[in-house]
């Protein structure tokens, strides 16, 4: 009975975490898209771009920025929609949305992101973080498509989690930067932390959420062992409390 209750609580927690993640990512994506409208004003440059001047290849960089913003605004919501049960139950719709998102990511988001990363704020270490995140997306996208063609649904889902996890870095990283700026942390340090922490944490969480992951299996075994040890310890404490020796009164 206790195990069934524990499993039910786990399922309910996963559902609420899934809803919270999707809601947060959709809100963050819409907010970023709204803030990026100024990048498409061809008569003036937004402050974010002016800060980076002079650029070695300004025309290429500006074109990459606009392509990147547009590709993210299209592909990320499609990827989030593909995670929902409603879309996953409709195989044809799931396939169409996945293909559109994959094409936009492969030919729009990743190449433009690579160009932008070369002049990233924070220096070479931040540039390396962007390229590393993009490499994870490219690698996972390739394996996810191959797994889908082979009807390996578990492997496909695992790969797509990594794609979405790395795309979510855009939202979580922005949130961290805002927090660090409010705390008065040096911008160079803030950019490095706000990029690398979400990139690594997202990759770890995506792996832990995958049923076929060896890392997840090891963590589950460890958590279950700790839970059993704590349950056994609590049982021993209760038993000892019940069988306390009755103190003698005299001889």
Defining key terms:
251 residues, mainly alpha
Main β-sheet description: none
Tally of helical segments: 10
Q: What's the total count of β strands?
A: 0
Mean pLDDT: 83
* Overall number of domains: 1
Q: Cα distance, first to last residue?
A: 47 Å
Layout of strands and helices, then pairs:
Layout: H1 2-35, H2 47-50, H3 58-83, H4 85-88, H5 91-117, H6 124-149, H7 153-167, H8 169-182, H9 187-208, H10 214-242
Helix pairs in contact: 1-3, 3-5, 5-6, 6-7, 6-9, 7-9, 8-9
Task: Kindly describe this structure.
With 251 residues, the protein is an all-alpha fold. The chain has one domain (9-211). It is built from ten helices and no strands. The chain has helices at 2-35, 47-50, 58-83, 85-88, 91-117, 124-149, 153-167, 169-182, 187-208, 214-242. Helix 5 (91-117) packs antiparallel against helix 6. The radius of gyration is 24 Å and the shape is globular.
Brief summary of the model shown:
This protein is 80% helix and 0% strand. It is mostly helical. The two termini are 47 Å apart.
């Amino acid at each position: 009975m206790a195990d069934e209750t524990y499993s039910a609580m786990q399922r309910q927690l996963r559902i609420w975490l899934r809803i919270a993640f999707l809601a947060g990512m959709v809100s963050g994506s819409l907010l970023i898209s709204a803030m990026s409208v100024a990048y498409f004003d061809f008569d003036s440059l937004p402050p974010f771009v002016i800060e980076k001047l002079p650029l070695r290849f300004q025309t290429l960089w500006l074109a990459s920025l606009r392509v990147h913003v547009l590709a993210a605004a299209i592909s990320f919501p499609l990827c989030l929609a593909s995670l929902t049960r409603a879309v996953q139950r409709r195989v044809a719709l799931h396939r169409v949305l996945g293909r559109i998102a994959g094409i936009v990511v492969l030919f729009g988001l990743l190449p433009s992101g690579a160009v932008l990363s070369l002049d990233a704020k924070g220096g070479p270490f931040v540039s390396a973080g962007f390229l590393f995140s993009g490499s994870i997306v490219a690698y996972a996208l390739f394996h996810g498509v191959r797994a889908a063609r082979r009807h390996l649904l578990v492997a496909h889902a695992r790969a797509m989690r990594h794609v979405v996890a790395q795309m979510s870095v855009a939202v979580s990283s922005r949130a961290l930067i805002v927090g660090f700026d409010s705390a008065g942390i040096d911008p160079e340090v803030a950019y490095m932390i706000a990029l690398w922490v979400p990139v690594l944490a997202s990759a770890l969480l995506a792996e832990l959420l995958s049923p076929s992951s060896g890392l997840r299996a090891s963590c589950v075994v460890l958590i279950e062992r700790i839970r059993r040890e704590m349950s056994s310890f609590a049982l021993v404490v209760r038993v000892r409390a019940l069988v306390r020796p009755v103190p003698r009164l005299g001889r």
